[in-house]
Specification:
Length: 353
């Protein structure tokens, strides 16, 4: 019999289009993992999670569902190999969330550093939606309902995976057996991609913060965004020594440039280390760096834009892709939940009295 493939679960919140932080942090690695054909991957549009901080703006969530699907197809995710799925249409995920909520304390949820940071960023004050506070639990349910062994993600997700492992271990300890599987993260290869900085240089590039270069941005928009990007505020004259750390131009080059890009667009340097050295010493202007970055990103994004445009013509087909993927997800998660109910002992109607 053929060995069952290990499961991968990843996903995104439908709160806007995907950006180059996603490309560097998770999308590229998803496509790579897909092409190895060693795994069964589910890519989830986490609309329930998006609603935890967008309850009053469901239209945004609905619209973004299509945007995300287009971005997935644009980067090369292939519905023949990867299931693209919709969270709210998979009942088992909400059910498992309910069981998990009893295995975690409020104090533990309040300690999650990513959530703490997001609460500050979103300015909730004292009005934090309970659903938002608990979204790491729902995320743990997503991962475990699929029995996912691996989760490719950026490093903002590490606390979520830690929380998931704790819940799995609590569940297996209390209800016995090895019903649920502890997941491991797969982080990007280049550390600049762990949590790609935004164009404003102030923090993570994030859909909700308006500091993004989107995968779908056209050439003109891309150029405008790069040309007005934050660099090193102390690098005023070309001859001034410059800082490359915390400088988004260099961080993006770190994430996306290759030696081949240098050979093609900036042959006076062989590689990024040589270019950085010159910038740090002084004598290399921001404009020149930005033009190079534009060439690198434009070359990277061009084929993605073309593919996106091609798929954009058929909205019904997008829904069809999601429907088919979600059907597979419902089957897989229902199998897990049958075992979960059995383990807890609440499978009343399937037992002999
Ligand atoms: P939102 O602002 O709505 O939270 P987001 O831009 O943070 O959106 P998510 O949908 O929360 O995007 O994240 C989806 C996945 O993309 C996660 O695995 C996350 O780690 C990764 N990711 C998001 N932003 C970045 C980034 N700037 N750099 C690297 N990876 C990222
Ligand atoms: Mg986020």
């Amino acid at each position: 019999m053929q060995k069952e493939k290990d499961i991968i679960l990843t996903g995104d919140r439908p709160t806007g289009s995907l950006h180059i932080g996603h490309l560097a942090g998770s999308l590229s690695s998803r496509v790579h993992l897909q092409e190895t054909e060693q795994y069964q991957m589910y890519v989830m549009i986490a609309d329930l999670q998006a609603l935890t901080d967008n309850a009053e703006n469901p239209e945004k969530v609905r619209k973004s569902l299509f945007e995300l699907t287009l971005d997935y197809l644009a980067v090369g995710l292939d519905p023949e190999k990867t299931h693209m799925i919709v969270q709210s249409a998979i009942p088992a995920l909400s059910e498992l969330t309910m069981y998990f909520l009893n295995l975690v304390t409020l104090a533990r949820l309040e300690r999650n550093p990513t959530v703490k940071h997001e609460i500050r960023e979103k300015g909730f004050g004292h009005s934090i939606p309970a659903g938002f506070m608990a979204y790491p639990v729902s995320q743990a349910a997503d991962i475990t309902a699929f029995r996912a062994k691996y989760v490719p993600c950026g490093d903002d997700q590490l606390p979520m995976l830690e929380q998931t492992r704790e819940l799995v271990s609590a569940f297996n300890r209390i209800y016995g057996g090895n019903v649920l599987v502890e997941p491991k993260e797969i982080l990007p290869k280049r550390s600049a991609c762990f949590r790609l900085i935004g164009t404003d240089g102030s923090g993570k590039m994030s859909k909700s913060l308006g500091n993004c270069i989107y995968i779908k941005d056209d050439e003109k928009t891309l150029k405008e965004k790069i040309m007005s990007m934050f660099t090193d505020p102390t690098h005023i004259n070309v001859s001034d020594p410059g800082h490359t750390e915390n400088n988004p131009v260099f961080i993006y080059l770190e994430a996306f440039s290759s030696d081949a890009h240098f050979a093609e667009y900036l042959a006076e340097y062989h590689n990024l280390s040589e270019m950085k050295e010159h910038y740090q010493k002084g004598g290399l202007g921001d404009m020149k760096c930005k033009k190079f970055l534009f060439n690198v990103l434009n070359e990277t994004l061009l084929p993605l834009r073309k593919r996106r445009e091609w798929y954009e013509r058929d909205k019904a087909e997008l829904l069809n892709i999601l429907k088919k993927g979600t059907e597979k997800a419902v089957e897989a998660t229902e199998r897990t939940l049958t075992e979960v109910r059995e383990a807890i002992g609440i499978n009343y109607f399937n037992t002999n009295l």
